[in-house]
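[Automated response] Your request has been received and processed.

Submitted sequence:
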Amino acid sequence: MMSPSMADRADGGVWGGGLCRFVQTATGPALRWEMRRNCALTPRQVMGSFGALALLNLGVATAFWLAGFPLVALFSGIELTAVAAALVCYARHACDRELLTLQPDRLVIEQHCGATVHRTEMQPAWVQVDAATRAGTALTLSESGRHVQLGCHVTLPVRKCIAQELRQALKALSPGLHDVDLSLTPMPSSPRPASAS
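Generated structure:
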């Protein structure tokens, strides 16, 4: 059973001003971190852009066809096919994300890549968090010889912040996995400068 203060705050709010959110899962309240791909266009914008490009290409191809250059229509069709293939690839991975869900009895890691979801469960008391130290390195979670690398969709500072928050949440759970008051362990939202005396 999760502590009353965590259950009371499990309303989707942010815990301690960080990247972690309280969520209500099927098995009770939990802390969740979400790392998702940064998509610049919504699916509607992608379809609108492709439609506008297709209409423009159709107009150009028709004009050249009527002027006696039918090969332009062929190359216009090849171009539209290549753009459509690229957009399909983009659309398959637009919703890629990684979710960390921490409950007193388990840490669930879900990695969504295209239509594939890889799910790993770890025991919070045994999880080790290895933070990324430089650009291009992943956040690694280890438990009993298993390693999961995360953070390919977010920047290095975000990976470091998630590692810090996750370490703090795991530390808060370790003394007594069922009697922890997570509201008493605030997370720093940003480092505070030292005061000058």
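Summary generated for your ticket: The longest helix spans residues 43-66. Residues 1-16, 176-197 have pLDDT under 50 and may be disordered.
If you did not submit this request, please reply to this message.
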